[in-house]
Amino acid sequence: MHDKYILHIASWYPHQESPYEGDFVDRHIRCISTRVNGIVYFGKAVNKPLAKLQTAQNENCKVYKRLFQRAGSLSNYSKYHALGNRDISSIVEDNGIPIAIHCHAGFPGLSLSTALSDRYNIPLIFTEHSTIYQQEKLSIKDKIVLWHLKKYISKADVVCPVSQAHANAISSKCITKNIDIIPNVVTNPFYETLLKKSPKPHKLLHISSLDDDQKNITDILKAFNLVRLNKPETSLTLVGNGNIKVIKRLIKRHKIDITNLNINGPIDHTSIPKLMTDHDLFVLWSRYESFSLVVAESWASGLPVICNDSGGITGENNDSLGSLAQDYTVEGLAETINDSLDRYHKFDITAIRQYALDRYSESSVSHKYVELYKSLHIL
Questions:
Q1: Cut 0.90: pTM above it
Q2: 193-206 tens-digit pLDDT
Q3: CA distance linking residue 108 with residue 111, whole number of Å
Q4: Does residue 208 sit in helix, strand or coil?
């Protein structure tokens, strides 16, 4: 007799060659597994393949990983399905038939998830994170991925976008049966750091992929330059897994004063809570976002956020949580930063943390998924 479990199909997940890839999916699944037993399957084409299906036990969740040889994109997709079906058969043989399939991130896992849902006649839940539905300009590859998503997303019993803006974008391009918005999760370490409020606020922080096309790093740098004209003590720290050389070229091209400017490559996720509490304001200036997890993490750390309404949860921002800029220009960002620094003493960082705790904690998010599973008669 096997225990009941939900089979999570993760299109993105941390692995040896990329330990931070899909870490937000990992945290999402771990959050759910605090209340519901689960098994994760993840397949990925990599440069250093492993012949055997890897297994690991993470508390209430068992993880199976398949790392196979990288090849052309179409070849990868075919191999993913061939190996995926074989691996799933092994998982079912060991653990029994799952009570539901829960796909996290649609490409390439949604087509495999749909096939499994049909094969075992069990519900399919689809949690999407991708910003592809919100992008105005798509490459040929992105267009193929979007075609794939549109083809299979209608098969899911419930689609779970991570924000209202994300839901609107998905609905505008895809046919869905049901939509249930459930946010990304902010893990406990962000709520456990010591809250600190500076008597002389001047430290700005930005953490992202540092992709200028989406995150608009250029405007952040230019606005920082303007702010320092009146507040020369202001500092800016940029942290991300993007190409640092590209950022340095932007600095040179736009003649950015590098005084008080710090640029760091990727850091371990466990180091981010302390980094946030060591700064005074977080800055996000994206062109589009599905959720803006880093905003929720900032609030959990008691850090006020400066941003524009770029989708995700940025539209929730207000004078109590930070500043929502109405003017999406360099001058508009600089003015918002100046204003936020001037009224920093009014921010209640304890209330900011409580706001995040009520909405994005593991307890809150896992409860929402349990209610969703119950509505599908899975639990």
A1: yes
A2: 999 999 999 999 99
A3: 7
A4: strand
